[in-house]
Amino acid sequence: MKMMLRLHLDYGNPPLVIAHGGFSGIFPDSSSYAYNLALYVSVPNVVLWCDVQLTKDGVGICAADVKLDNATDIGSIFKNGSKTYLLNGVPTKGWFSVDFTSKELATVSLIQGVFSRSNKFDGNGVPKFSLFKMWLQRSSHQHDQFFTQHNLSMRSFVLSVSRSVIVNYISSPEVGFLKSITARFNPKTTKLVFRFLGPTEIEPSTNQTYGSLLKNLTFIKTFASGILIPKAYIWPVDATDYLLPHTSVVVDAHKVGLEVFASDFANDVPFSISYSYDPITEFLNYIDNGNFSVDGVLADFPITPSEAIGCFAHLGKNAKAQAKPLVISKNGASGDYPGCTDLSYAKAIDDLVDVLDCPVQLAKDGTPFCMSSINLIDSTTVAQSSFSNLTRSIPAIKSGSGIFTFSLTWNQIQSLQPSIANPYAGFRLFRNPKFKNAGKYLTLSEFLALSKNASSLTGVLISIENAAYLAEELGLSVTQAVKDALSKANYDNKRVYMVEENIRDALNSTVEDIKQFADSVTVSKTSVFPENMAFVTGVTDIVSKLQSFKLPVYVETFSNEFVSQAWDFFSDATVEINSYVTGVNVDGVITDFPKTAARYKRNSCLGFGNSTPAYMTAVQPGSLIPFITSEYLPLAEAPYRDLNNSDVVEPPLPPVTRAPTPRPAGSNSTAYRYSIIEHPTSKAASRN
C-alpha cells in the first residue's frame, strides 16, 4: 500500500473530492446554489454528485431520494399526493418522483432535509436533469427495480444521456443494473462504481447482504471498477463512538484492482469522539494514515476534504509554521480532557500550543492553583461530595449559588474528581466521556515547572479574577501569590487586557488609556465578525484599530464543535480560524482544541497571496445573507458599541484586609486579568 500512496503523489492523482448533492451541508441538496458553491470552494477537479430520480414522464432530476417529501415542499403543494409502495421489500409511504411529471415538479421547491442545518435557504426549484448536464460528473442510481415496476427504465435513461454528456462515474447499489450497462461504457471514460449500503441490508439482484458481498470483491470487479462504501466499513466505531482498529477493506479492494470511495462524511453530524469534533482530522485518517488511502470521499461539506487533501496531507508533525498567530490554550486542551489538569496541559503541549494558560484560584489555605473557575461546581464533582453542604451565594462573584475554592483547603480540593466542560451538551455534543473525570489539578508552581520543561512553549498565560473580593473579604492576595510563585523564574511579564463584551471599535483616547497598563488586548470572536442568527453580517475595525496603536490582538474562544461557529464557516473549525488569521490578521487565537489551531499554522497552503486556493481563502463577511430566502431574512440589529474611556477605568487593587473597600461605580475589573509570561528559553521566538 505504500506503493499506492506513492502513485497518488508521483502521478498527481490525489483522492477525489465528491460533493454530495453539491455543497449540501449549507444549501438544499442538489440545488443550483449547492452545486455552484461546491465548484467555488473545492479543489479544481471536484466531482459533483447527482442522485438521479425519474419522474412520471421519464425525466431525470437530481434529488436526494426517490421519496421527495423530506427534501422538498411537495407535501404542501400536492397535499393528496402521498402513496405507499414497496421499496426494497419494505412498505414505504411518501411523495414519490414517479407519481409526478417534470412539469408538476417545476412548481416544487427544494428545502434542507437535515433538520440540524439552517432552513434559511429553502425555496430553490428542483433542477431538471437535462438542465444540469454541465454538473454531471458523477451520477448515482438507486431503486432501479422500483422504477422498472413503474414502467420506467433507468438503464435506458442513462444510456440516452451518455450519448450527449460525458458522465465520469455511475454508481448504484444494484448489481443487476450495473451488469446491464457494463458493456456499454468505456471504463477509461466512465467508471462504474458499486455502492454498498448497510452490511445487513439485502441487495435485490443477488438477494445477498451487502456484508456478504463485501467478502467477494473479485465478483464485484467483474462489473465495476470501484466500490463506494460507508466510512464505518473502513474505520468502525464502538458502542460509545470511539474508533476501533481499521479494517482491511481498502487494502483488499486495491489488491483486486478496485478503487475505493468512502461516503457518509458530514461536518455537522456527530462523528467519532476520537476526532475531537475536527472534520479535517477525520479526513486525514482516510487519506494519510501511513497504511492506505481511499481514492475519494463523498462529503456534504466539500471544502473540508479539499483542505485536507490540498493543504494538510503528509505534513508531518515537524512541519514549519507558515502563519504568525500565537496559539493560546483555554484551560489547556480542555476540549479533550478536564480543563487545567495535568492531562489537558500535557495534551496541549503535545499538540504544539504556543502559550499555555493557567487561571489562578486560591484555596482556603492560600495555595494558588490552576482551575477554570472559582466555583468548584463548574469543574469538579464537588456537588456529589461530602462538601456539598458548603454551597453559598456570593453575588459579588457570580449569580446563583456555588461552592468556592476558598472554602476548601488544597488537600481537600485534591480529593475531588475533575469534571470535563461540556459547553454544547444541549446539542448532545459531549467531550471525551471516557476521560470526563480524569487527571489531577496542579498548583501554580507545578504548572510553572511543567511549562519550563516544555521547550516548544513560547510562554505561559496567567489569569487572575476576583482579586479585589479575595483581598477585601477574605484577606487573601492572589496577586501576591502569583508574584511569589514567579519570583524564582526568569520570566518577562506582558499584560493582556480582556474586553469582556462585544464591541465594534474603540476611541483613540481609549486605546491610549489601555496602552498605559496593557501590552495587548483580547476580544471576542463576534467583536471581529458580528453575527445575526448565526450568520456573519460584516467585519468591524477593532483589530486594525488596536494594531495601529501597536497592540497585538488575541481572539477567543475557538472550539471545534460545529454549533460554536457561524454558518459562514461551514461547520469547519479550520475555515473559521483561517478567516480570522488571513481575513483580519489577528495575532493570536485562544482555543480549547489547540491541536486544530497549531496544525492550521503549519498547513502548506499559506503564504501564496493571490494564488491561494479557494478552499484556503478567508470567507467574505456577509456573503451568505444574500442567498437567504426573503421571508427568512434576519431582522436588523443595532451595531455593537464602541469601547470608551469609562470602560477601561481600572482602580488599584485594595490592600489585603477583611474590611470592604469602596470601589468607583461602574468600574471594570478586567484590565489585569491576563499576563503572558515569556518562557525563559523562548523569549526570542515569542517576540518574532
UniProtKB/TrEMBL annotation:
GO terms for molecular function: glycerophosphodiester phosphodiesterase activity. InterPro entries: GP_PDE_dom, PLC-like_Pdiesterase_TIM-brl. It comes from the Eukaryota. Keywords: Glycerol metabolism, Hydrolase, Signal. GO terms for biological process: glycerol metabolic process; lipid metabolic process. It catalyses: a sn-glycero-3-phosphodiester + H2O = an alcohol + sn-glycerol 3-phosphate + H(+). Its EC number is 3.1.4.46. Residues 15-309, 325-601 form the GP-PDE domain. Pfam families: GDPD (PF03009). Belongs to the glycerophosphoryl diester phosphodiesterase family. This is glycerophosphodiester phosphodiesterase.
